Recover the amino acids of this structure.
């Protein structure tokens, strides 16, 4: 056997079978390498067959991805010149996120390669719950055409789901569906895959650190009967580092959302001092325009309306107020022409006096101020961040925008078909959130409870989402009593408790709550659940229940306190929530925020009840939810 072939350990079940398979392969001039995860459950096999790499992924001795081609230079034979291995176990602390500390524990295989005149490394990292592949390429002729090509040979019985822009996610799709469809759907990452045993997700990580590469294009190849990720690039720099191709593996669907493999694969923090980056909640004006209070005041794009938002934020401890579009009439090189009814300097001064930070929208379609000057101008205004709209799925622009905003100590929220730069919040934590979803009332179309559930289980795998959940005046919105409410009346199906739960379930560094201060004040006892969430400052996050199109339960902890949110589809139902995550021998006070017996997502969405109680470790809470409803708990030690 060749000196580079794998040396097997016989302590794992099923190893003998793999030894026989690989030995037969080596007899046919195959060079096989294996790397296993720390717990031994996940393994990657790589074969160099006549100069072409093929990888396969095994989980608990089941083949979850059959041999699939992997390459970086098309039509170039690959020769392995050296094999190295690393074992890593370390911990690191993100600036913000679903966890306060993350463990990076993986086994790594590094293959040094000769590709014609070029040299390269193929790096394969294997975690207990995922794998990543990356190439590092050097010594090539400038202008060489590269293509980070990766196949994913799945089983015919696997079911696929994926995001669909500002529409409900696609799925379930089978390979047979893709093979027989005349116009195949656009497959966006992350792809969620239901197999007979584990759940998988296909995506990428660290695109921010890979200049020249665009978002991976996923297609179905009829000739290969396989999913294919292709990313063509002209190699100009002396050294090229690809993004990571990532495959997540979890026994439970919900665990894909809290899987830390993409973050571990992302480049470490690139900012010397990130202390100015503060995750949190923000009020938002855009969906409130036209809302009239009982006293006769009507919200609009004006100074008095913004004073009201700032007053409420200061009173409730809401960190931010987001001013959306139309604060300016037009932009030109180095100049904004302000709206007539808005005294922005006065609003900025008032917010500073009240201790509320401001975030400001920008839309280059309305004239271009100039990106090279935009961020420094926003900083000069005292803005804490920028919400960037209609920049397009432009990877080079997004990379530069993240860096430029960081240089000016601005957080950035990308909207309107943004780039899903998975893992970027580790590298540049000022990239606080993105609207990589059908956000609530996008294009004035309200999404259904089922659409929310899909996005919470599919879109959320790629990272933080700005989804704009948390409306409380559901009756008024459905009646069309807003300038920018749903175009179709009574199309917004939800309950106020479900809206509160959604703000917890969807992970984001900036939770944008879209209703009027008066709507929240009228339900102050329910708003308490949103108000007290330590957004982005979680020590631990878990998805306790998850079933596609049916329900989800998420629990997040800071210190000794837990917040738990559940939502259900339009059938409604009851979930048993086991509180076995609480500390033993400790009594807790719990506040329940619940749908009432009369609540219904269509006919009576604003009915709810709040009650308190005491619980201990091992207690089981029966969370009963109305059609389209939800259930929330705030648990803290006595």
């Amino acid at each position: 056997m060749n000196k580079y072939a794998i040396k097997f350990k016989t302590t794992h079940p099923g190893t003998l079978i793999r030894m026989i398979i690989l030995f037969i392969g080596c007899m046919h001039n195959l060079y096989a390498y294996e790397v296993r995860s720390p717990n031994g459950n996940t393994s990657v096999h790589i074969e160099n067959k006549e100069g072409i790499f093929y990888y396969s992924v095994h989980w608990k001795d089941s083949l979850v991805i059959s041999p699939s081609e992997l390459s970086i230079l098309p039509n170039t034979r690959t020769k392995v010149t050296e094999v190295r291995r690393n074992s890593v176990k370390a911990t690191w602390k993100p600036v913000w996120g679903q966890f306060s500390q993350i463990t990076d524990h993986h086994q790594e295989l590094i293959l040094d390669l000769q590709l014609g005149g070029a040299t390269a490394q193929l790096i394969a990292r294997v975690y207990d719950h995922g794998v990543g592949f990356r190439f590092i390429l050097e010594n090539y002729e400038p202008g060489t055409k590269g293509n980070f090509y990766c196949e994913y040979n799945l089983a015919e019985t696997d079911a696929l789901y994926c995001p669909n822009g500002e529409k409900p996610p696609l799925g379930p799709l089978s390979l047979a569906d893709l093979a027989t469809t005349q116009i195949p759907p656009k497959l966006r990452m992350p792809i969620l895959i239901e197999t007979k045993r584990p759940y998988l997700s296909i995506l990428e990580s660290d695109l921010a650190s890979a200049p020249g590469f665009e978002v991976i294009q996923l297609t179905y190849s009829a000739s290969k009967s396989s999913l294919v990720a292709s990313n063509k690039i002209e190699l100009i720099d002396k050294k090229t580092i690809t993004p990571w191709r990532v495959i997540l593996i979890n026994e439970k669907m919900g665990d894909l959302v809290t899987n830390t493999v993409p973050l571990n694969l992302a480049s470490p923090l690139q900012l010397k001092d990130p202390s100015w980056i503060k995750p949190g909640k923000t009020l938002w004006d855009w969906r409130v325009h036209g809302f009239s209070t009982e006293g006769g005041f009507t919200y609009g794009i004006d100074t008095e309306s913004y004073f009201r938002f700032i007053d409420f934020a200061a009173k409730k401890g809401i960190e931010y107020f987001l001013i959306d579009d139309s604060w300016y009439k037009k932009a030109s090189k180095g100049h904004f022409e302000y709206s007539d009814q808005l005294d922005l300097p006065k609003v900025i001064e008032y917010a500073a006096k009240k201790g509320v930070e401001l975030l400001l929208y920008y839309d280059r379609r309305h004239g271009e101020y100039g990106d090279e000057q935009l961020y420094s101008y926003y900083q000069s205004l005292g803005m804490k961040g920028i919400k960037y709209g209609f920049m397009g799925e432009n990877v080079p622009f997004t990379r530069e925008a993240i860096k430029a905003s960081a240089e000016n100590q601005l957080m950035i929220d990308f909207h309107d078909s943004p780039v899903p730069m998975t893992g970027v919040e580790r590298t540049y934590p000022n990239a606080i959130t993105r609207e990589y979803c059908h956000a609530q009332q996008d294009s004035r179309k309200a999404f259904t409870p089922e659409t929310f559930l899909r996005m919470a289980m599919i879109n959320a795998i790629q990272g933080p989402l700005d989804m704009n959940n948390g409306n409380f005046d559901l009756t008024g919105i459905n009646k069309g009593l807003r300038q920018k409410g749903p175009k179709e009346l009574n199309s917004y199906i939800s309950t106020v408790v479900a809206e509160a739960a959604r703000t917890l379930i969807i992970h984001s560094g900036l939770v944008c709550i879209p209703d009027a201060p008066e709507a929240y004040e009228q339900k102050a006892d329910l708003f308490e659940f949103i108000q007290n969430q330590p957004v982005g400052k979680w020590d631990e996050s878990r998805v306790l229940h998850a079933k596609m199109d049916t329900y989800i339960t998420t629990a997040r902890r800071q210190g000794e306190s837990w917040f738990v949110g559940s939502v259900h589809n339009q059938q409604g139902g009851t979930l048993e929530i086991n509180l076995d995550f609480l500390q033993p021998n400790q009594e807790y006070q719990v506040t329940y925020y619940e749908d009432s017996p009369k609540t219904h997502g269509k006919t009576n969405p604003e009915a709810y009840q709040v009650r308190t109680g005491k619980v201990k470790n091992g207690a089981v809470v029966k969370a009963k939810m109305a059609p389209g409803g939800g259930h929330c708990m705030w648990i803290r030690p006595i």
Q: What stands out?
A: Confidence is low (pLDDT under 50) at residues 1-29. The longest helix spans residues 303-316. The chain has 13 helices and 36 strands.
